[in-house]
């Protein structure tokens, strides 16, 4: 193998083995870091520095080869074999410099992403954003504040009902079981909050226990329900 071939092989090996060297140093158990790369750095941060380091070392090697070749030529004294060796050294060093310089230009300037690698977490595909819009399926909140549940009433009773819904209350219905009472109400202004009062006259209403149910609907068609229990009794004398 000639000297020129040896220099070319060394140059190619430097280019090929740089990523391997970076990976090995990244995995090394070094307390404060390596000569080129620190332990805290990832392999993607270390590779560009290794390329720069290799270029510097290669430049020193080729300068040394050129100096040695020049020395051989100056001291050849007509020795054809020594002159031939010096020429091979010149040619090999020149070819090696061209290869490394071309690789450096391609990697650093034409496509810097080849040496300025991104961390793996930056290459991972981003998670799709959940754009699902929540649908309000809650009906109006109904509170029967009067009378109290299980109250005993006679003569007449005032029903006080509070309705609340952020989408606006569209309509409501009062219904007694047994069916002695039914009141329907349509609200054109669709209020978000409403207090409704209704006086139920109990004259002629059979005595007994009743359940007053309240149903309300908002503008989205959601329903809300509430109820109160009453006992209609004979008025006290």
UniProtKB/TrEMBL annotation:
<keyword id="KW-1133">Transmembrane helix</keyword>
<feature type="transmembrane region" description="Helical">
    <location>
        <begin position="53"/>
        <end position="77"/>
    </location>
</feature>
<keyword id="KW-0732">Signal</keyword>
<dbReference type="InterPro" id="IPR013783">
    <property type="entry name" value="Ig-like_fold"/>
</dbReference>
<dbReference type="Pfam" id="PF18895">
    <property type="entry name" value="T4SS_pilin"/>
</dbReference>
<feature type="transmembrane region" description="Helical">
    <location>
        <begin position="89"/>
        <end position="110"/>
    </location>
</feature>
<feature type="signal peptide">
    <location>
        <begin position="1"/>
        <end position="24"/>
    </location>
</feature>
<protein>
    <recommendedName>
        <fullName>Bacterial Ig-like domain-containing protein</fullName>
    </recommendedName>
</protein>
<dbReference type="InterPro" id="IPR043993">
    <property type="entry name" value="T4SS_pilin"/>
</dbReference>
<keyword id="KW-0472">Membrane</keyword>
<keyword id="KW-0812">Transmembrane</keyword>
<dbReference type="Pfam" id="PF17957">
    <property type="entry name" value="Big_7"/>
</dbReference>
């Amino acid at each position: 193998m000639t000297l020129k071939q040896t220099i070319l092989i060394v140059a190619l090996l430097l280019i090929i083995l740089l990523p391997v060297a970076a990976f090995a140093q990244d995995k090394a158990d070094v307390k404060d870091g390596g000569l080129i790369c620190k332990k805290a750095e990832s392999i993607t941060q270390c590779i560009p520095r290794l390329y720069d380091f290799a270029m510097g070392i290669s430049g020193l090697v080729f300068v040394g080869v050129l100096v040695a070749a020049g020395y051989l030529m100056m001291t050849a004294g007509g020795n054809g074999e020594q002159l031939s060796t010096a020429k091979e050294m010149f040619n090999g060093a020149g070819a090696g410099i061209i290869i490394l310089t071309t690789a450096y230009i391609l990697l650093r300037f034409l496509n810097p992403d080849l040496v300025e690698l991104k961390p793996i977490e930056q290459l991972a595909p981003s998670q799709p954003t959940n754009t699902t819009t929540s649908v309000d399926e809650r009906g109006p909140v109904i509170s029967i504040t009067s009378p109290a549940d299980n109250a005993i009433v006679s003569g007449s009773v005032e029903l006080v009902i509070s309705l609340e819904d952020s989408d606006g209350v569209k309509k409501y219905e009062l219904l007694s079981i047994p069916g002695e009472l039914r009141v329907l109400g349509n609200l054109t202004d669709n209020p978000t909050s409403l207090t409704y009062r209704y006086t139920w006259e109990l004259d002629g209403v059979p005595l007994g226990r009743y359940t007053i149910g309240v149903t309300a609907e908002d503008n989205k068609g959601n329903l809300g329900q509430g109820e109160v229990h009453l006992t209609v009794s004979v008025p006290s004398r």
